[in-house]
Amino acid sequence: MKLGKICFWGGLLLALATGRAYSQDIDAGARKAEVCMPCHGVNGNSTNQQFPILAGQTLRYIYVELKDFKAGRRKNPFMDPVAAKLSREDMFDLGAFFAAQKRAPTPFNSDPVKAAKGEAKADETLCTMCHLGGFMGQNEVPRVAGQHYEYIVKQLEDFKAGRRTNDAGTMASVAKTLSEEDIKNLANYLAGLQ
Question: Which residue of 82, 101, 115, 175 could cross-link 159, Cys pair, CB 3.0 to 4.6 Å?
Answer without folding.
Answer: 175
